[in-house]
Amino acid sequence: MKIRSEFTRRGSSPVHLSLRPWRVPGLACFAAAIALMASHAVAQTPAAAARELPAKTVPVPDTVSPQMQKQIAAPLTSTWNVIPTTAEGWKEQVNAGYQAAMKALPALRETLGVKVEPMTIDGVKAYRVTPAAIPRENRNRLLVHVHGGCFVSFPGESGTVEAVYMAGFGGFKVISVDYRMPPDHPYPAGLDDAMTVWKAATKMAPPKNMAIFGSSAGGNLTLAMVLRAKQEKLPLPAAIAPGTPMSDLTGAGDSFHTNAMLDNVLVAYGANCDKRAALYTNGRDLRDPMLSPVYGDMRGFPPAILTTGTRDLLLSNTVRVHRKLREAGVEAVLQVFEGQSHAQYYRDVGAPETKEAFTEIARFFDKHLGK
Amino acid sequence: MKIRSEFTRRGSSPVHLSLRPWRVPGLACFAAAIALMASHAVAQTPAAAARELPAKTVPVPDTVSPQMQKQIAAPLTSTWNVIPTTAEGWKEQVNAGYQAAMKALPALRETLGVKVEPMTIDGVKAYRVTPAAIPRENRNRLLVHVHGGCFVSFPGESGTVEAVYMAGFGGFKVISVDYRMPPDHPYPAGLDDAMTVWKAATKMAPPKNMAIFGSSAGGNLTLAMVLRAKQEKLPLPAAIAPGTPMSDLTGAGDSFHTNAMLDNVLVAYGANCDKRAALYTNGRDLRDPMLSPVYGDMRGFPPAILTTGTRDLLLSNTVRVHRKLREAGVEAVLQVFEGQSHAQYYRDVGAPETKEAFTEIARFFDKHLGK
Q: Which residue in the set B27, B258, B326 is minimally distant from A58, CB to CB?
């Protein structure tokens, strides 16, 4: 297998590294990630200023619930650095993820008492996600969800997982957008679809009663949707909840280095997730705020709640958006969960931290949404 | 030199490790910290669940200001694992820190236009810290500051640094408590002094117009003061700002492991700072909420703003307090600065991140304090 890694940094040309074949996943991958990171480092700062960290063993913390300990103790995602070389190969990998998510969904819906129905909105596929009980104050409220999956994974109903959590824990009606994705549909197809749904949704409920949310690529899209709504002078939502957003696809952000190999979900920058993102960005300028929203103008953004974990590879990309929003005078709150890697706050419906994260988001929406 | 490390974990007996002499500071120290962490780990979880991290080089991020890059690029604190063995040795080390802080203070006061005068309040030494210009809305407001220094460092005027930042950037009058410290005065002397000042201060201004703040050990003391004020049924402040609080002296907290050797201020758990804290706790039960406030009952706490950085060894101890406050129904906000190690938000008056951190705290106080 040949692994090709691209780093595109601000204004610099992409660096192409051709690495020799090795076992995947396995310890050899560590060396790969480190080599990638080191080359990244050298281009950036004098080696003297970099921090040399020795190898270390990091235990599972006892400061989280047993359920969360189990997630933290899990091995690295098996495909974190398995990079398909053809569109067909990507589709096979995506399908495996789809099947796994679909298998888990019925029990999740059952536990949370949530119903999911397919729908089409102005030609875009979506899902109507409805909790069994809708509190009075949420009857005229509507949330729009954009799912994660590094812009390529979780098509169809498999993308509704986070929407089911939000509907179930928060008692909100949700429309989850099944936006078009690479390899067949690079940017701007996905964002276009999300905007089509947003425009239509603002006719189903008053925008002041609405929020947009989503994690990872969904966090990127949440932010990009607001940037685009501003640009197109469309109504803005009353609040947003970008979870651990892929807000900077250029590779900038300290936690890409500090949490590399510690985050057991994304594992390292330049690996599988970023290769999927590259299918979305498709050679465009990664500093474009529609691709890396941290570089966007956040003045006039609605109140935002951001969620991440201390081991999250995107910890920096989350806190940087938080600071950027605050600098722009936007009400923005940050929640950082102990020990969690990327988006581990919606993996186990029984973990108290899961309920905590969604309850906080629901409270934030309740505070900012009209009724 | 002989270094003796003690870990006292929840309910378990202290583990004593005798390590062989080595160069301090130097690469050999890495092995030491790792050995300490590994032994800690083994007691806690099966080795299989722990994460094995390879050695790596972490560059200075380009996502922070040049001033902050300089701080991040700085070598590890020279004394991070230099542990005096006598009270006299500690006093010498403390005096070196005192001299360095005193040397820097006049320029800092000058830059921020802040005046510092010694005072005594009911027998406790303190400093009155006054900005040249006090905005109208702050005239009847008063802040109480408890300084950091791992419960042992920054006696006298050298403890006023953070108070000068807060007075200067926020335009607040501040009383900075020069509480008694080990080796001569272990717990509860320092907290007693802080409470004496708090009681007296609530007669100088209405408590609803007051806040308590402080970082590191000062963050611990800020939280402990509220716990004790609750216990003694004293008035509570209208807001608090515990910065990167030493909220858990037992060694629990994921970032003690994940950010070990990355944080260039504290560097590792069980090193110099924790040895100073041990002089304060002096053999007491470290789970006592007056020593490790994360274990305290936070119901009824005033609104709180917490500050930390992504590389902070106390990142976990900060976010855990944030979660705990939220669980207790307290309004609590968290700000996490990109790339910063422990309390690096008040080291360089010229860094934009410094102004940003204190401006956020000042805004939070302005929102919650009466006039």
A: B258
- Write the CA distances from A158 to A103, A116, A280, integer angstroms: 9, 11, 19
Strand partners, A131: A114
Nearest to B323 by CA among A347, A338, A68, A62: A338
CB neighbour list of residue B236: distance below 8 Å, 6 or more residues apart: B207, B226, B229, B230, B300, B301, B302
- pLDDT given at position A49: 86
Full residue range of the structural domain in which residue B348 is found: 87-368
> How many contacts, defined by CB atoms under 8 Å, are there between A and B?
214
* Burial of A86: CB neighbours in 10 Å, binned 0-12, 13-18, 19+: exposed
Spatial distance between the Cα atoms of B325 and B336, rounded to a whole number of angstroms: 16
8 A C-beta contact, residue A143 and residue A211: yes
Q: Is residue A285 part of a domain?
A: yes
Q: Considering the domain boundaries, does residue A32 fall inside one?
A: no
User: B227 vs chain A: nearest CA distance in angstroms?
Assistant: 21
Which B residues in the span 278-337 are in contact with A, Cβ-Cβ below 8 Å?
310-311, 315-316, 319-320, 322-323, 326-327, 333-337
- d(Cα B35, Cα B33) in Å, to the nearest integer? 5
- Given a cut of 70, whether residue A117 has pLDDT beyond it is yes
At B48 the pLDDT is 55
The confidence band for B20, taking pLDDT boundaries of 50, 70 and 90, is very low
Q: Could you say which DSSP state residue A173 is in?
A: -
Q: What are phi and psi of B245, to 5 degrees?
A: -70, 140
Q: Concatenate the DSSP letters of all residues of A19-70 into one string.
A: E----SSSHHHHHHHHHHHHHHHHHHS-GGGSEEE--EEEPPPSSS-HHHHH
Tens of pLDDT, residue by residue over B130-167, are: 999 999 999 999 999 999 999 999 999 999 999 999 99
- Is B133 in contact with B114 (CB distance < 8 Å)? no
- Please tell me if residue A39 touches chain B, with a CB cutoff of 8 Å: no
To the nearest whole Å, the CA of B368 is away from the closest chain A CA by 15
pLDDT of residue A48: 55
Beta bridge partners of A144: A175, A212
Is B189 part of any domain?
Answer: yes
Report which of A222, A239, A237 is spatially closest to residue A318, judged by C-alpha positions.
Answer: A222
Residue A5 placed within a domain: no
CATH number (domain holding residue B98)? 3.40.50.1820
The CA distance from B178 to the nearest CA of chain A, in Å, is: 33
| Cα distances (angstroms) measured from residue B43 to each of A89, B38, B39, B252, B256 | 44, 9, 7, 12, 15
User: Average pLDDT of A157-181?
Assistant: 98
Look at residue A266 and tell me whether its pLDDT is greater than 50. yes
- Return the axis-axis angle of helices B87-112 and B161-170, rounded to nearest 10°: 20
User: Smallest Cβ distance to A55: which of B49, B53, B360?
Assistant: B53
Quick: pLDDT tens for A294-335. Answer: 999 999 999 999 999 999 999 999 999 999 999 999 999 999
In B66-125, the residues whose Cβ lies within 8 Å of chain A are 69, 72-73
DSSP string, A72-132: HHSPP-TTTT---SSHHHHHHHHHHHHHHHHHHHHHHHHHHTEEEEEEEETTEEEEEEEES
* Count of domains for chain B: 1
Residue A318 tokens read as 């989350």
Q: Which of B197, B196, B192, B187 is nearest to B249 (CA)?
A: B187
* Bridge partners of residue B17, in order along the sequence: B5
- Closest chain A residue to B69 measured between Cα atoms? A49
What's the pLDDT tens digit per position in A3-61?
333 333 333 333 333 333 333 333 444 444 444 444 444 344 444 589 999 999 999 99
